[in-house]
Amino acid sequence: MALLVFLLDICRQFPGCGNIVTFSQFLFIAVEGFIFEANFGRKRPAIPIRYYLIMVAMFFTVSVVNNYALNLNIAMPLHMIFRSGSLIASMALGVIILKKRYSISKYTSIALVSVGIFTCTFMSAKQVASDSSLNEEDGLRAFMWWMLGIGALTFALLMSARMGIFQEMLYKQFGKHSKEALFYNHALPLPGFLLLAPNIYHHAVLFSQSEPFQVPVIGLTLPIMWFYLLMNVITQYVCIRGVFILTTECTSLTVTLVVTLRKFVSLIFSILYFRNPFTAWHWLGTFFVFVGTLMYTEVWNSLGPLLARWRKRPKQE
Fold first, then answer.
1. Where are the membrane-spanning stretches (predicted)?
2. pLDDT tens, position by position, 69-96
3. How many angstroms separate the CA atoms of 29 and 184, rounded?
4. What is the pLDDT of residue 2?
5. What does the pLDDT read at residue 33?
6. DSSP alpha helix (H) spans, the chain
7. DSSP result, 183-251
8. Which residue among 93, 112, 238, 310 is least packed, with the fewest CB closer than 10 Å?
């Protein structure tokens, strides 16, 4: 929740700051992993570096494209809902690449998620096109940028699903090494940020020119945007570290359910706290996405036996 608050505070004042946010997150996690996981480079990786390079290329691309989509007239609620459709991409690529077959309930859940995303996307398109503050030419330009943003999100969704399949195959071959994967997925892409250096430096200057803020308790004074960025980086680290640990400590059902619920709660918080425009159609689309995701994880099958045991419990006199 805190991650979302700080990210939105940053993006509201500097909508094009996605690159500096991504770079800061990668740098922090890489430095932490270099010290505590790689033991200052003395520990050999369990998975060969060449496989990490492939994974990192996909991971870096997904992270940058997802953050950059916020610069392309994509509202945060739509951004979050669209990324909730990762189940669609995973199932489609699983069928194509791994030749998997699924039950009717799985395909039904995918249909619900697809309808939900289409509904939210279509209604957001109407909002962009009907913005009364824009003339016809500016409205068309805004709509074209929005369409480019949708294309970017679609590409990132498919790339993320392909990365998940690749990672699954690596873990089957070499075993699960969550901390190592977390480190290399963030350390190896750092040279790629040289391509974005002018944009990162530009926003670093803007951040330094923001109003001063005194950090509570310690009394340190620094530009408020740097404080927001620091808090975003720390909360992002806690979040992604938890996800990597969950992949090794819990079943895939538990991981999927936890991540889905986190996205849903974050979405509701974003709407209520930041007063983003959200119509009844958006609520309906969100409902379809949420129910479809729960159907995909087969949480109903897990809850059924629990309810049956609860009903058969001995009644107290």
1. 23-40, 52-70, 76-98, 110-130, 142-161, 182-201, 213-231, 243-274, 280-303
2. 877 777 766 776 676 667 677 777 878 8
3. 9
4. 47
5. 94
6. 2-13, 18-36, 49-68, 76-83, 86-97, 104-129, 136-174, 178-187, 197-208, 224-249, 252-274, 280-297, 299-311
7. HHHHHTTGGGGGGGHHHHHHHHHHHHTSPEEEPTTT--EEEHHHHHHHHHHHHHHHHHHHHHHHHHHS-
8. 310
Which tokens is 295 given? Answer: 């159907």
In degrees and rounded to multiples of 5, residue 50 shows phi and psi of -60, -35
Which residue has tokens 């809902």? 81
Tokens 């010290």, residue?
35
Q: Which residue has the tokens 């943003």?
A: 149
Phi-psi region of 298 (alpha: psi -120 to 50; beta: other; left: phi over 0): left
Which backbone phi and psi does 227 adopt, to 5 degrees? -65, -45
Distances (CA, A) of 272 to 100, 149, 245, 267, 288: 40, 24, 30, 9, 19
Joined tokens for residue 9: 């505070």
Q: How far apart are CA 118 and CA 82, in angstroms?
A: 9
315 dihedral zone (left: phi>0; alpha: psi -120 to 50; beta) = beta
pLDDT-flagged residues of the chain (< 70): 1-12, 76-77, 80-81, 83-85, 87, 121, 124-139, 247-258, 260-261, 263-277, 297-317
Burial class from Cβ neighbours inside 10 Å (0-12, 13-18, 19+) for residue 299 reads: middle
